[in-house]
Amino acid sequence: DTEVTQTPKHLVMGMTNKKSLKCEQHMGHRAMYWYKQKAKKPPELMFVYSYEKLSINESVPSRFSPECPNSSLLNLHLHALQPEDSALYLCASSQGRGRSGNTIYFGEGSWLTVV
Amino acid sequence: SQQGEEDPQALSIQEGENATMNCSYKTSINNLQWYRQNSGRGLVHLILIRSNEREKHSGRLRVTLDTSKKSSSLLITASRAADTASYFCATDARAGANSKLTFGKGITLSVRP
Q1: Shortest distance, CA B95 to any CA of chain A (angstroms)
Q2: How many interface pairs between A and B have CB atoms less than 8 angstroms apart?
Q3: Residue B1 carries which DSSP code?
Q4: Residue B68: which residues within 8 A CB-CB, separation 6 or more?
Q5: Nearest to A34 by CA among A112, A98, A99, A101
């Protein structure tokens, strides 16, 4: 089962709201990722968690706050977002070990609209 | 920052024809992965090819990697209308716990019935 599940599929939020995106995988993967994808653009990495610790933050604004409560779950907390943050947010996971590279599996994404 | 550059950026073919997409990258890699994305959907993993591999097959897909030229190609044989999607190459310069993918701009493939 190579499945990464993201909720909600669609989210509309105001600029003063606080909301969260959730991601879950049950493949025993130890690396989890958040990517952001604007329309007609490639995905761009935001954060990487490895063994439940934040290992990479690609200079993402603090209005995006990631959290990894356990090895299966990854959240992205959103606060005081701007309309330009509207995008498809993709969660992904991989085994996170080994030298020869791991397949990175993506979820279906959460469409975020900031109004 | 983008690592891969796909070529062409858009491709339109007739059902049954083969589709070839190319990807070039700039720095050394551990592996390269190809993904498909249908409009508004998530990314579907197609193939991973490691830096010490030259060719891999999966069903109707064939991927080659030339590390001396820093390029890869994805061949889809006997295309179907359902292959219509965007295709991305993504490079991973590291491995294991430090893996992260950097995506190219993508290729839009249209397969006409």
Answers
A1: 5
A2: 81
A3: -
A4: none
A5: A112
